[in-house]
Amino acid sequence: MDIDTLNRIAGLARLKVDQAEADQFLSDFNKVLEYVDQVKAMDTTPIADDEIYFNHKNFTRPDKVDNNLSREALSQIAPEYENGYIVVPRVIET
Predict the structure, then answer these.
(1) According to the model, what pLDDT value does residue 44 have?
(2) Which contacts of 23-31 are long-range, i.e. CB under 8 A and separated by 24 or more positions?
(3) SS3 51
(4) Which residues contact 25 (CB under 8 A, 6 or more apart)?
(5) Lowest CB count within 10 Å: 21, 62, 72, 87, which one?
(6) 82 DSSP assignment
(7) What are phi and psi of 11, to 5 degrees?
């Protein structure tokens, strides 16, 4: 990308960019484009699709009930608590 293209994009986006910002943005943007070119140049043909999907480990935790927070403790931290329930504001208008 060159400075003319950057100024054109800034104009289309209605952004005011001073020379220092333009120089910094141009440098950063060109680094991103260089990285994209490196990724494009990588040879990924030896990697089969199933290798990508099956070689990942599952880092999720087991789905189990954990009662670390008592109702009393919950009632202390809830913004509004009534008859054993947390009162929440209505989010759907009828």
Answers:
(1) 76
(2) 26/1, 26/2, 29/1, 30/1
(3) helix
(4) 6, 17
(5) 62
(6) E
(7) -65, -45
Q: Are 6 and 20 contacting, i.e. CB atoms less than 8 angstroms apart? A: no
For residue 40 the two structure tokens come to 């494009």
Residue 7 tokens read as: 């100024």
- Rounded (5°) CA angle 68-82-79: 70
Residue 75's contacts (CB-CB under 8 Å, 6 or more residues apart) are: 81
- Taken in order 74, 77, 83, 85, the sign of the CA dihedral is negative
Q: Any idea which residue has 């070689």 for tokens?
A: 55
Partners of 82 in the beta sheet? Answer: 85
Q: What percent of the chain has pLDDT over 70?
A: 95
